[in-house]
Design goal:
Largest sheet: 6 strands, mixed
Oligomer: single chain
Helix content: 25-40%
CATH superfamily of the largest domain: Zn peptidases
Structural class: alpha/beta
CATH architecture of the largest domain: 3-Layer(aba) Sandwich
Order of helices and strands: HHEEEEHEEHEEEEHHEEHEEHEHEEHE
CATH class of the largest domain: Alpha Beta
Strand content: 15-25%
Number of strands: 18
Shape: elongated
Radius of gyration: 24 Å
CATH topology of the largest domain: Aminopeptidase
Length: about 400
């Protein structure tokens, strides 16, 4: 296809769109989370798309825009979330200012993932303005609640929204992510036997066992991976450790040996690796550490939703048409090969691609701007990557759906 838009006024407008989205404080599970959705609904309507305001519950709602195809061509869904992480310390710019300099656009959630959302909005806007129309439907979906297990995309699927394939625009620095981990949340409780520090040799120290257990779990991978990419997404991490006296973890007696410790973490696993087997391997690793600490016993439990969630492993054959289309779009825009596969660190993320694959039965790929400066103070996205992502979406629409004047 011939290049469309993104020069002069079109490029300025595309940058203003992402800056405008950043200026909405849409932190997840806050009263203002859906504020950006109202703006998106107006923009979708102004472009001329069929617009749907989809309730999600408790005053939250998704925005859906349909660019209808002219005949029965292949349909394509773009998917992304507008809710953001909480604000952290360390920012040197206004998190909601939409600051733009010569290289980056800044803001809370710009990488995760308002630049991705804006990229497919602007791709369709420029194609419509050029007088083009797809042969197959193009669906633009903007969801809330991704950080609560994908509740926005769950509602999308429950209400019957489907396409022949999808592109989820989570941040991958324009790589094509064809596999990412499933996630299992777990907690370990260690119980020992307390003594005063003067007699600690007689104690069974739950805190000491916990300190030994953290690196053991963090080094753990799992058996049964179906492919090399599935093994590549393996990772375990303990993010919370607490200890003290009794099940209340009392902290009032530091001179005493802690008799209870609790660890919370996440295990990441891939295609072919079942959650029950992962939990069993976690338990075996815990037992091995306990043997090094006589008198300490432990229990391992899963603490997340064991049903169909966005925490299931995502995977797709790299020969699938949606993947090869995104690869071709990258070559057309950047003139080189696209990194494709279980690309680190992105393959350790979770995304709504899991739900779109497992709950909706759709093939797809994850590809979006941002990633390197994701979820950190002064979160930002390269302007060049954002604009090139828009161009890539245009090519992807052309290759999958077809375009005509």
């Amino acid at each position: 296809m011939n290049e469309v838009g993104l020069s002069g006024a079109d490029g300025v407008r595309a940058l203003e769109s992402v800056r405008r989205m950043v200026r909405f404080d849409s932190r997840t599970e806050t009263p203002q989370e859906s504020s950006v959705v109202d703006w998106l609904l107006d923009e979708l309507s102004a472009i001329g798309l069929r617009v749907h305001r989809q309730p999600v519950g408790d005053g939250r709602y998704n925005a859906i825009g349909v660019w209808p195809g002219s005949d029965s061509g292949t349909s394509l869904m773009f998917n992304g979330h507008v809710d953001t992480n909480p604000l952290t310390e360390g920012w040197t710019v206004d998190p909601w200012g939409g600051l733009l300099d010569a290289t980056f656009v800044y803001g809370l959630g710009v990488s995760n993932m308002k630049a991705g959302c804006a990229s497919y909005l602007e791709a369709v806007r420029t194609l419509v303005a050029a007088g083009l129309r797809p042969r197959g439907d193009v669906l633009l979906t903007f969801v809330v609640g991704e950080l609560q297990g994908g509740i926005g995309t769950r509602r999308l699927i429950e209400d019957g929204w489907r396409a022949d394939c999808f592109v989820n625009c989570e941040p991958t620095d324009l790589a094509a992510l064809t596999a990412h981990a499933g996630a299992l949340q777990f907690e370990v409780e260690l119980r020992g036997n307390t003594r005063h520090m003067s007699k600690r040799e007689e104690a069974a120290d739950a805190l000491a066992a916990a300190a030994d257990l953290v690196p053991a779990l963090n080094a753990l991978e799992f058996a049964g991976a179906a492919t090399a990419d599935a093994q590549r997404v393996n990772r375990t991490h303990v993010g919370v450790v607490r200890s003290g006296l009794g099940t209340a973890l009392l902290e009032t007696r530091p001179p005493q040996v802690a008799d209870v410790a609790r660890l919370a973490g996440s295990a990441r696993y891939g295609q072919g690796q079942a959650p029950d087997a992962v939990l069993a391997e976690l338990g075996a690793a815990v037992e091995q550490v306990c043997r090094r600490h006589p008198g300490v016993r432990a229990e391992v439990v899963r603490t997340d939703d064991a049903g169909p969630t966005m925490d299931q492993p995502f995977f797709i054959d790299q020969a699938e048409p949606v993947v090869t289309a995104v690869n071709a779009a990258h070559r057309a825009v950047r003139g080189g090969g696209q990194r494709t596969g279980a690309i680190r660190p992105y393959c350790f993320y979770g995304s709504d691609a899991s739900l779109l694959q497992h709950a909706a039965g759709m093939p797809g790929v994850v590809c979006g701007p941002g990633g390197k400066y994701n979820t950190m103070p002064d979160e930002r996205v390269h302007i060049a990557d954002y604009l090139d992502m828009i161009r890539m979406h245009q090519h992807t629409i052309s290759l999958i759906c077809g375009l005509r004047s």
